[in-house]
Design brief:
Blueprint (H helix, E strand, L loop, with lengths): L11 H14 E2 L1 H9 L9 E5 L3 H6 L6 E2 L18 E5 L7 H11 L3 E5 L2 H7 L23
Parallel strand pairs: 1-5, 2-3, 2-4, 4-5
């Protein structure tokens, strides 16, 4: 018997609902970069990119425009200044790190709309997008590798 099929196959309705839910919770580097380049993030945009790693790792390299907000410091008090009508996109190092999941969970539990960046900074770099260094957010000025999908 097929290893792929032995656990069953979801109906098209079930599969559609599952994949729609995944898209509600996650985004990828190409879509985030397109929004950064289009001005959807930062001042006046609806999206805020959050680097959930330590300030030291942020300074070594981060997504341009991202704010440093380590997940370990997120609380009702530290999030009091965040704007409620934004969508917060959290990221960390990559798939071997759960900092973005921790940050997204904490923000969602505090009532914020969130998404998680698939693959984190690792996939961002792998797709050829620039990183900013230092303690300032910076600005993304050009795209990386065009998404092949």
């Amino acid at each position: 018997m097929s290893h792929v099929l032995r656990t069953g196959v979801a109906s098209p309705v079930e599969a559609s609902a599952f994949f729609e839910a995944q898209l509600k919770f996650r985004t990828d580097p190409a879509d985030l970069a397109a929004d950064l380049l289009a001005g959807e993030a930062g001042e006046g945009g609806r999206i805020v990119v959050i680097d959930t790693r330590s300030p030291e790792h942020y300074a070594e390299g981060h997504i341009p425009g991202a704010l440093s907000f380590p997940h370990r410091t997120m609380s009702p008090a530290t999030t009091a200044g965040l704007v409620r009508d934004r969508v917060y996109v959290c990221y960390c190092d990559g798939i071997g790190c759960n900092g973005s999941t921790q940050g997204a969970y904490k923000l969602a539990a505090l009532g914020f709309e969130v998404k998680e960046l698939i693959g984190g900074l690792h996939w961002w770099r792998q797709d050829g997008f620039a990183v900013a260094t230092g303690s300032e957010p910076g600005v993304l000025l050009e795209g990386g590798i065009a998404c092949a999908c």
